[in-house]
TrEMBL record:
<keyword id="KW-0560">Oxidoreductase</keyword>
<dbReference type="InterPro" id="IPR013149">
    <property type="entry name" value="ADH-like_C"/>
</dbReference>
<feature type="domain" description="Enoyl reductase (ER)">
    <location>
        <begin position="11"/>
        <end position="322"/>
    </location>
</feature>
<dbReference type="InterPro" id="IPR047618">
    <property type="entry name" value="QOR-like"/>
</dbReference>
<dbReference type="GO" id="GO:0003960">
    <property type="term" value="F:quinone reductase (NADPH) activity"/>
</dbReference>
<dbReference type="InterPro" id="IPR011032">
    <property type="entry name" value="GroES-like_sf"/>
</dbReference>
<keyword id="KW-0521">NADP</keyword>
<dbReference type="Pfam" id="PF00107">
    <property type="entry name" value="ADH_zinc_N"/>
</dbReference>
<dbReference type="GO" id="GO:0070402">
    <property type="term" value="F:NADPH binding"/>
</dbReference>
<dbReference type="Pfam" id="PF08240">
    <property type="entry name" value="ADH_N"/>
</dbReference>
<dbReference type="InterPro" id="IPR036291">
    <property type="entry name" value="NAD(P)-bd_dom_sf"/>
</dbReference>
<dbReference type="GO" id="GO:0035925">
    <property type="term" value="F:mRNA 3'-UTR AU-rich region binding"/>
</dbReference>
<dbReference type="InterPro" id="IPR013154">
    <property type="entry name" value="ADH-like_N"/>
</dbReference>
<dbReference type="GO" id="GO:0005829">
    <property type="term" value="C:cytosol"/>
</dbReference>
<dbReference type="InterPro" id="IPR020843">
    <property type="entry name" value="ER"/>
</dbReference>
<protein>
    <submittedName>
        <fullName>Quinone oxidoreductase</fullName>
    </submittedName>
</protein>
Amino acid sequence: MVKAIQIQRPGSPEVIEVVDLDVPAPGKGEIRVRHTAVGLNFIDTYHRSGLYPLQMPSGLGLEAAGVVEAVGSGVTGLSEGDRIAYGTGPIGSYAEARVMPADKVVKLPGSISDETGAAMMLKGMTAQYLIRRIYPVQAGETVLFHAIAGGVGLIACQWLKALGATVIGTAGSEDKADLAKAHGCDHVILYRKEDIAERVKEITGGKKVPVVFDGVGKDTWVPSLDSLQPRGLLVSYGNASGPVRDVDLGILSAKGSLFVTRPTLMHYTATPDEMRATAQDVIDVVASGKVKIDINQRYALSDARQAHEDLEARKTTGQTILIP
């Protein structure tokens, strides 16, 4: 038996329970993994709350690192004792151990620790598909990235600077602004005190930006559109403040023939080859030292409820992990 986190119904963090589960031997194409660190991500709160519905009862979590304990038939390239990490599920990483599809994990090099691996995969792959694939940011471009002091934001900020971009970020406090600047953010807008779109225009000399990366959702929808150049792209990849609803498409033409996409990491890592290529890009940029993974919070796996409360209360910065 292993300890794992489970929910019986969607709801607030109070629905999170610690349970004992049996972990079977791996079947064909599967491996059994003993987790050493588990990643905490905002999407976990969407699954828990029911915003993204799950079949109940359900585990939580999409990201972790650990050691292969057993290998099922038909698995090649992985052996017992290999260190691995993953960031695209399936759901259930909040557990001491589990059985996983072998084609969902990647090996970790010796230069990257288990904790770093657990903290970087989902957020790192999110940053990768946003700034390298949806809108391949070029040297000399200026971009707006919301929640720049968050887990995805701090990774993306460093990566964008390595690509030669100028980064405008938004943050909710002076402390978070200082953290973002320490990671290379050129300009930080305090969204509780400043008008985002007006500040973007000031910073860019009236030109505004060609792309906005927005994981906040409802609260930044209009400011994001107002920060874009004509024919600019809004990449709305998250709902930290709630989902954007009841959109009048006419607003896109009125504000400059704008483009909007609402992507998910799962659609950009839908095949094993796509997943591996995305993950390898993250591994390479972290191993190079261009992107550093700051783990600013650690919780015991049994304290997952508290971790969710703190995440939703905006008390966390950078990366957070759970320790089984």
